[in-house]
Amino acid sequence: MKTENQPGISVVLPCYNPLPGWCGTLETHIRELNAKLPDRTVQYIISNDGSTRLDRTNVAALSSLPDVIFLDNAVNEGKGSAIRKGTLRAEGDIIVYTDIDFPFGTDPIVEMVRIFEKNPQCWFVYGNRSAEYFKKLPLKRRLFSKGLHWMNRLFLNKHITDTQAGIKGLRREILPEVQGTKTNTFVFEVELIRKLIRKGIGIEKVEVSANSSIVFSDFSMKVLFREAVNFARITILGGLWNDLS
């Protein structure tokens, strides 16, 4: 039974050209998470980032479900942009974002909620991917991720190396920090976590592993170069700017 004194939860789902069958997969995960959190209202916000192959029949069916919002952003701007737009519609006291296919399942979301319940000093929770997850990645992505781990340790915090797992949770009070990020692509999370670390905001992690059914896409060299430039802008150039300010 849902109770009014329990904090609501908003789940933001960035969406860009999802694989066939995504609608049914999403409905399954919605039912599953609702069953695991029966005492809470869970809001689902699908933030479409300029997808070009969405079946509008599926969209209409999803939009008719209770507590589901579909945001139709016509222009593809990047994951960071999609998440910022999605969180603007979030009504929950706890906000979680994860990918549209729930690559880590629903258990990490439940665990994040429990962490916020038990630790009032924690304001942000990130997913920390297992070694098995990285073994499944295409070679270019695996090398890029390992390089990013090393750079995170060097420029962010030696205890926070995995910034790129596609699942994060936060209390509503730090939503302005999310909205204050400028990066549109997937390394926007580096910018966000850097901001939180600099402000001394309490951060915890949950261990996550990928569902066996997940199909990993590869990145082109153009995308990898773009993200490397974005990372340098956020960490190295951003640090120099702050030192001079």
How would you sum up this structure, described in words?
Keywords: Transferase. Residues 10-176 form the Glycosyltransferase 2-like domain. This is Glycosyl transferase family 2. One of its GO terms (biological process) is protein N-linked glycosylation. GO terms for molecular function: transferase activity. By secondary structure, this protein is an alpha/beta fold. The protein has a single domain (9-244), classed as Spore Coat Polysaccharide Biosynthesis Protein SpsA, Chain A, CATH 3.90.550. It has 9 helices and 7 strands; from the N terminus they run βαβαβαβαβααβααβα. The chain has helices spanning 22-36, 56-63, 79-88, 107-118, 131-136, 139-155, 175-179, 188-198, 221-244; strands at residues 9-15, 42-49, 68-73, 94-98, 124-129, 167-171, 203-208. A 7-stranded mixed beta sheet has the order 3-2-1-4-6-5-7. Strand 1 (9-15), helix 1 (22-36) and strand 2 form a beta-alpha-beta unit. Helix 6 (139-155) runs parallel beside helix 9 and helix 8 packs parallel to helix 9. The longest helix is centred in the last third of the chain and has 24 residues, at 221-244. It is globular, with a radius of gyration of 18 Å. The termini are far apart. Residues 239-245 have low confidence and may be disordered.
